[in-house]
Every structure is written in structure tokens, then in C-alpha cells.
Amino acid sequence: MHRITVIPGDGIGKEVMDATMIVLEKLNLPFEYIWMEAGDEALKKYGKALPDETLEECLKSDAVLFGAAGETAADVIVKLRFELKTFANIRPAKSYKGVKSLYENVDIVIVRENTECLYKGLEFEVSEGVTESIRVITRKGCERIVKYAFELAKNEGRRKVTALHKANVMKKTCGLFRDVFREIAKNYPEIESNDYYIDAACMYLVMDPQRFDVIVTTNMFGDIVSDLAAGLVGGLGLAPSANIGEKYAIFEPVHGSAPDIAGKGIANPSAMILTACMMLKHFGYLDEARKVESALEEVISEGKTTPDLGGSLKTMEMAKEIAKRI
Ligand code: ATP
Asked: Ligand 1: which atom is nearest the Cα of residue 271?
């Protein structure tokens, strides 16, 4: 039995989590779901966005399935990633038939470092009107994430790993990341490797995304390019992610609580469902994950989608269409 902490959180997090459960329940897997609270509503109710009981439950679980947190995201999901030491954030961006997007045949996996960089939150007000932020990049952190990216490429039969940095300006922090990348790449001669400056890479991503396969980068750059990559293939409604550490794993869609559409029942459940597929693969249920993915692809290609993908179905209706095909 795998013990899964389920945290729907705020806004559309709750809607897409309920929809995903309809699909997961169809698979009859040995999962025990423990539902816990966190986010803006938890803050109002308990005075803490990430209540102690929720964190304790996460630490006892084999995986956390997370929906979305609103204003309190930094105190909830960013904190959870740090507490559970999930150093690798995996964000695939893949094009689907039937989804209107800029390009076809995009299949990129972004491997984002998840515990260092500017998101450590070391920010200070030095004096009136003067603020500073500390960017922490360590050799150990770089080695761990770069190795993870090459191992992922090897295991998934991918051809190339590209590092993104800005080592010409941030000579120490990005310089260390680039140097470690180049050292580790030598251990994987069968996998092509190269590195780009982050700004140039953004242009290449928009003009020629097929030149990318696996991307590895530091925390903040990874956050930004993964939204960019999601935009290339049909938006946040289709973007899943996994946070992986040595002991723990957190699975969450890239999108947030989407207050603009929350409560309307029109959020696309695909990102959350694909996120659940990443969890299935993590536990070795590869066939089940593939079944769900192909059911989802079928539903999308038939145009049975939520409005963000041009359809007219509600969140639950789309999930039921997917579940029906499993
Ligand atoms: P938060 O502060 O919680 O991150 P946000 O609005 O800043 O919220 P997102 O929640 O990621 O950021 O939403 C960005 C945009 O993408 C919004 O217009 C939202 O409606 C849209 N969006 C995000 N997720 C989905 C989804 N699952 N289905 C449809 N549209 C979505």
C-alpha cells in the first residue's frame, strides 16, 4: 500500500483534484489517500498556511499529491519542497494532437533545481529604499541536479541535455553551475550536451523548440522557462510537474489556484491528471500511466475539452470522458 497525502489547496486546486480522483479510482491501485489542508483557506481557519499536522502527514507519506495554493504559495508549496528536500523539479512540456499551439512535435523535459538560488528567500531591507537578495548556488546542489538530468535522459532514452545559465554576468554562481555541468557531461559520452545563456535560450525556445530535449537549470530560470515551454504547447492547463528528492516526492501541476476562473467549474483537469501520471510512473505503474495518458490524448483529439482548449466541457465532464476510456 502506498500512502499518499492529498492536498487540494485553494481555488481550482480543489476542482482539478476531485476530477483527478475520478480517474485514479478507475485504476484500483493500492493507494491510501490521506486528505489534508493547506493554503489560503487553511491560513484563515488555523492561522497557519501549512498546518503542522499537514506537514507531519507529508513526512509520513510515500508521496504528496498537491493541487494549488493561492497567495500563500510561498509558505506552502515552496516550504514543502524545502522541508521534503525535493531537489529536482521535473516539468515536461509536450505537444498534443488537437491542441492549438505554436508548434507540433515539442517534447521537452525541464529539470529545475528546487532548493537553492534566489528562491531560498534570503531577502533583506538593508536600509530605507535599499533591498538585497542572496543567490545561493553550491557545488553539491549543482552536481546533484545535473546528474539527475543526465540519468533521466539515459533512462528515458533521450538524446540531449542542455544547461541554461547566465555565466557571463553571474560569474560565480552561474559559473559554478556551468562548470559542474561540463564536468559531469563528460561521464555521459552517449548523450549530447550543450549550454546556452538563458536569454538566448528563451529566443531559441520560441523560434526553434525542437532543438531542446532535456533542459537543466537553476531554480528561478527553471521556473520561468517552464511556463514559457508550457505556453508553447497549449498553456498551463496541460503542464504537470514532479518534485523529487532522495526520500520524498511531491506531485503538483505547474499552474496555480487561478482565481480568475476558480469556482466556475471550467478549469482544465489535464495538468493535474498528467501530474498523477507522473506519480504512477514514480511508483512503477508504467502501463497504468500510459493508459491514462492515451485516454487523455483521445479525449483532447476529439475536442472534448474545457474552454481553455477550445471545448465546452466542465472540469468534471472532461475527467469523466477520460475515466470512461480507461
Ligand atoms: P497563483 O497566484 O495561484 O499562481 P495565478 O493566476 O497567478 O495564480 P495561475 O493559477 O497559474 O496563476 O494561472 C495563470 C493563468 O492561467 C490564469 O489566467 C488561469 O486562469 C490560467 N490557468 C491556469 N491553470 C489553468 C487550468 N488548469 N485550466 C485553465 N486555465 C488555467
From this structure: 27
